Amino acid sequence: MASGSRKVVLILTATLVIAGLGYFFLWIPTMRRARYFAVVTVCSSNLRAIGQAIQHYEAAYHDWPLRYDDWDRRLITAGLIEERDLRCPVRKDKNYHYHVASPPTTRPALTGNEVLLFEDPNAHWGYSGNILYVDCHVQSIKLDNYPPELLKWITAKGSSQ
Ligand SMILES: [Zn+2]
């Protein structure tokens, strides 16, 4: 009798452990997906904040900040963005920041499809990268659909700016 009830407890425990493991493995992809979307959202909001800071800078100083190599420092000094806005949350390298699209000397017309800043197409775990357009909208673009002119630019300049 005692060994019978022990067997039942053992079977129940094993069932619970297996069910628990199954549940855990089912949730892994969901958690990964949630983490991916959280990162893309933070990265998009960083880029949008930088886009708005660039516009505010231009309005306040009548000058296009992206024509300077230290455009990021200028925006921080002007109090328009914070240091943490300058990096994709996936990138831990402190020297990494978003690429400036060329030519950055003058503000492009507000057509909406002119790229201001972008990141490596594989920035988000090899899956996608974000692009900031002149009208401050941000697009998350998958590696396969990345604009060829930006890929060419990255190849020419080297990917870790
Ligand atoms: Zn990013």
**Major β-sheet profile:** 4 strands, antiparallel
- As a percent range, the share of helical residues equals 40-55%
Q: Which ligands does the model contain, each kind named once?
A: zinc ion
Q: Which parts are unreliable, with pLDDT below 50 for 5 consecutive residues or more?
A: none
User: What average pLDDT do the residues reach?
Assistant: 85
Output the helix-strand order.
Answer: HHEEEEH
Question: What's the count of strands?
Answer: 4
Give the CA-CA distance, first to last residue. 72 Å
Residues in β-strands, percent: 5-15%
Output the strand order for the largest sheet. 1-2-3-4
Q: What does the overall shape look like?
A: elongated
